[in-house]
Specification:
Layout (H helix, E strand, L loop, with lengths): L12 H6 L12 H77 L5 H20 L2 E4 L11 E7 L8 E7 L1 E4 L2 E4 L1 E6 L1
Parallel strand pairs: 2-6
Antiparallel strand pairs: 1-4, 3-6, 4-5
Helix pairs in contact: 2-3
Length: 190
């Protein structure tokens, strides 16, 4: 017995060749599909706009935070410099009475030259330290009175001297980097 060879898909090649071709109708975009696609495009467009707005908002927050951090860093640096300057001024102000006492010691006559020489050297060293710290003496005697730099503790009538001229200094004044550490205590002519 001989078996027939059948093609499992249904038609044999000879049968397929004899069949007329069927027309297949394909529409490029049926109306329902076009509406679905345009709805999807609108939805994607809305999502894109939302994401762009979110991105812009996030970028704005980032820029603001960056600016705040930069301002914080600058403010901290200014405060740190200010704290150093204030501490240095307070230290200098605390040491100025020692300088006043050294100058009083130099003003007193003594027979001991070695002692006098030692006090002079100590006072010179003190002035050198003040100079390194950029501490300067405030000019006073013969200058016009300036309430920002001088402290008038006495007024006198004196002929031959212009009004508001400093005629005597009781205590020297000092400034550091343009700021007054201690006002000069002075006598002013009226």
């Amino acid at each position: 017995m001989e078996k027939e060879n059948k093609v499992p898909c249904g038609n044999t090649p000879e049968e397929t060749a004899d069949m007329p071709e069927k027309e297949v109708k394909t529409e490029e975009n049926p109306p329902e599909t076009a509406e679905k696609e345009s709805a999807e495009v609108r939805k994607l467009s809305e999502e894109k706009k939302k994401l762009e707005a979110e991105l812009a908002d996030t970028q704005d927050k980032y820029r603001r935070m960056l600016a705040e951090y930069d301002n914080f860093r600058k403010r901290s640096a200014r405060e740190r410099d200010g704290i150093y300057a204030d501490a240095a001024m307070a230290t200098v102000a605390a040491m100025l009475p020692v300088l006043d006492n050294l100058e009083r010691a130099l003003a007193v006559e003594t027979q001991d030259e070695a002692f006098k020489k030692g006090v002079e050297m100590t006072a010179k060293q003190f002035y050198d330290c003040l100079e390194k710290l950029k501490v300067a003496e405030i000019p006073a005697e013969g200058e016009q009175f300036d309430p920002e730099r001088h402290n008038a503790v006495m007024h006198v009538e004196q002929e031959g001297v212009d009004d508001n001229t400093i005629v005597e200094v009781f205590q020297k004044g000092f400034s550091m980097n343009g700021k007054v550490v201690r006002h000069a205590m002075v006598k002013v002519a009226n």
